[in-house]
Design a protein that fits this description.
- Helix content is 20%, strand content 39%.
- With 296 residues, it is of the alpha+beta class.
- The radius of gyration is 20 Å and the shape is globular.
- The relative contact order is 0.23.
Amino acid sequence: MSERVYEVTHRTVYNYEDEVTASYGRAHLTPRHGEGQRRVAAEITVDPAAAELRDHTDFFGNRSTYFAVTAVHTRLEITSRSTVAVSRAPVDPHELSDLTCDQIRELLDGTTDPDLIEAATFRLPSPRVVPNPAVREFAAVLLAPHRPVGVVLLDLLERIHDDFAYVSGSTSVSTTTAEFLARREGVCQDFAHLAVAVLRTAGVPARYVSGYLETRPPPGRPRLQGADASHAWASAHVPGHGWVDLDPTNRKLVDDSYVVVAVGRDYGDVPPLRGVIFTESSGSTLDVSVDVVPVS
């Protein structure tokens, strides 16, 4: 299978109204290596220069970066630059196993296969994806008995995409699936969390995926720098086929136009940036730009 190579730049800039004496943070901004993609090169830079900057691999196999800025500053810029080669064909859901969700649950309940045992941990609730009556009601029609998992995945993509509106800024990182179901509008992380919640309700392992999606301009129009953005989608584990990634925001199965940065139980495991600052400042502004540029 041929590869598509991308150069990805993710820049985050904080501007503060008063001096910050120290900033400490952790970033999930480096693309993963494996599962259909190769990390060719990656670097994270911090301005002002970090007094400490180090990488480590977390529990889920993601690379995260810790930084400490101890110089006084009113502006903090974190830039991730990476080159990634992607060779990922979309899964044909009709070629997936004829297993139903109930059969997958029973198989995982009795498995001694270490890989399946590891995958089965993604059936458990997580802080932002907890069982609730609203999710079970939404899932009831999708999860009728005797439906093959491939059909369930296709219907899940279509129903979430069609029943909810994508409205930038309409929710926050603390929005629950129940609140999203009530509002009927949200952003990609809400779409992903709902897909994960439905699959876990069915007993199917499901994980939250953060990354990037190449934005292709209309024919004849130039590509706008900075037009891309961080994205999120869901991933279901189908025994015999492994992880199958699906993007309910765009109603499609994930292909080589996607770059995976990190996977976890939900957004809380893999935010692009989190940290603490020491300051008397009462306000700040945030600017984020992402470029996903195909180079071959």
